[in-house]
Specification:
141 residues, alpha+beta, 7-stranded antiparallel sheet, 4 helices, 7 strands, globular, F420H2_quin_Rdtase, Split_barrel_FMN-bd, oxidoreductase activity, Deazaflavin-dependent oxidoreductase (Nitroreductase family), coenzyme F420 binding
């Protein structure tokens, strides 16, 4: 898929998500969230549809990129600008993205794979350890 086609699809999913208040299905029929961040280099606003992986009162963001050998662009955005906004359809809230490591990452990844089974396959397809961020709710300022 060309980058233009990918961007058009990406934008259509975001528009549909917002028009239908989050009642949009992602791959394999899974629910989605929207992750709003800033570009790592530009500082410009960016929105990414991600699989919805609730984790207690927070959410996980799994940088799987379908098992590709490289991380998705938003991975670098979160490292540079961890203050984000999460849209679930039912609510929008500020969050801080924290990269998980070690056992904490492994436990979170197993949880994510229990919600969206392809995550297990994606890890097997790549030599990189797929990063997982905890999107921790922040109190409204």
């Amino acid at each position: 898929m060309s980058s233009t086609s990918w961007n058009e699809l990406h934008n259509r999913v975001i528009e549909e998500f917002r028009a239908k208040h989050g009642k949009v299905k992602g791959p394999e029929g899974g629910a989605l969230i929207l992750l709003n961040t800033k570009g790592a280099k530009t500082g410009q606003p960016r929105t990414y549809p991600l699989m919805s992986v609730p984790y207690g009162e927070n959410y996980l963001a799994v940088a799987s990129k379908g098992g590709a050998p490289s991380n998705p662009h938003w991975y670098y955005n979160l490292l540079a600008h961890p203050d984000v906004t999460v849209e679930t359809g039912a609510e929008t809230f500020p969050a801080k993205a924290r990269l998980l490591t070690g056992e904490e990452r492994d436990k979170a990844y197993a949880h994510a794979a229990s919600i969206f089974a392809p995550y297990a396959e994606y890890q097997q397809k790549t030599t990189r350890v797929i990063p997982v961020f905890l999107l921790e709710r922040q109190k409204n300022k």
